[in-house]
Design a protein that fits this description.
By secondary structure, this protein is mainly beta. It is built from two helices and 20 strands.
Length: 250
Amino acid sequence: MVVRAALLPVTLLLCFALPGSADVARTADGFYELKNKKGNFSIKVTNWGATLVSVVVPDCHGDLTDVVLGYDTVAGYAKGAAAGSTIGRVANRIANARFVLDGKTYRLFRNDGNNTIHGGHRGFNKVIWTVKEHVQYGDSPYITYYRSFDGEQGFPGYLDVYVTYRLSDPYDLSIHMNATATSKATPVNLVNHAYWNLAGHGSGDVLEHELQMFASQYTPVDGYMIPTGQVAPVAGTNDVSREYYKVVTL
């Protein structure tokens, strides 16, 4: 996805006018919590990498279980782990660590062999984000802000990025990401890199998990996990049945 310089969408600005919200504008790294009114559904996030640290929900017996892998301290993420973090500018691999946009070649930091992955060696998961708002209880947002520098990791232009974690009843977690280029066109591909274990992160592996994705097309990759550019139909492939993927290893 290529983002052109534009005005910040009005829908995002509405996030700053919610009842009971507090503009905290914190830049020191730390942990923050959101919890529903019943107290049986909560998440923790950190502004180091705008990272999702934990998601605690009741299991089938009503016992509270953390279903996301995470670290107890910011130091675990600072050492390089991407679990739960916001990955950008471009999460996927970029072949040969370069791309051409509007006739100009941009060269990036190589951190995956000859390629670039996760935005380079110091992507969005390796920086402290400013906490714009934090409302701990109820259906309230947690908003973080990061403005990247011109040419960061080789990417062009300034980029304003907002990430909102929000809880809603009964047990819904939404992550809303918005990126606005303010000076130059730039590729953007943001991802949350959470690792899930729906039986609880201390329950063992996830080899019995199943993931169903409804899709009619997919993007094949080459031997280096680089998308070939082809958009292929799912129907008729050996890896799928009835028009969707069924993945047993997450």
